[in-house]
Amino acid sequence: MSSVQAIIADDHPLFRSALKQAAAQAMADEPILEASDLDALFSALTEHPEIELVFLDLTIPGAQGLEGLARLRNQYPDILVIMVSANEQAQIIEQAMAIGASAYIPKSSSLDVISEAIAQVIEGENWLPPQADICTDSNTEQAQFARNLEKLTPQQYRVLSMIADGMLNKQIAYAMSIQETTIKQHVSAILKKLNVYNRTQAGILFKQMATVADNMEN
Predict the structure, then answer these.
(1) Last residue of a domain, one of 90, 122, 154
(2) Which residue, among 179, 191, 109, 91, has the nearest Cα to 151 in the 3D structure?
(3) 74-132: pLDDT as tens digits
(4) Does 109 share its domain with 59?
């Protein structure tokens, strides 16, 4: 078994317990941390830089669709992320993998299957549900946008999220306590890195990513 520091980010205590049990079969006897919302997860990552693996619930409180995963990949690109969710829609799985998840585990999976998935990820491989009929090499506009998000710095990512909320440059500058000219430079860099034409397109694609899970469930 491999020695890996991990944290489970899920708001359901019973599932966290089950996931710990499955992880014990694939990982050495290392303590697994827990977080019940997105803010607690990021606080734990700051306090515990040794964490190498995150189990992230798609609908954890504080996350908007796949934005939680995108933010995690942007700020901690070296951390492995295993998505866990009751949502088994192919579109969700495709986008999660495009953003950078190493695995997508349905919550309906048995403990043995979950353990197998964890072991595969620890060995450096990706894992998908055997029944999932998806294309991991998607070249859709949304998939390309998701992959490009990793090119942004954390500050640029924050600017993008505020653009998506409809904020003007001067409002973003005020919120971040920096000059408006600096925001304009960030916006130019964001558009170039994301390969989009304007801030409106960037905001729409970001919003689509943030709401995709909700849209699929409604």
Answers:
(1) 122
(2) 191
(3) 889 899 999 999 888 888 888 888 888 999 999 988 888 898 999 999 888 999 987 76
(4) yes
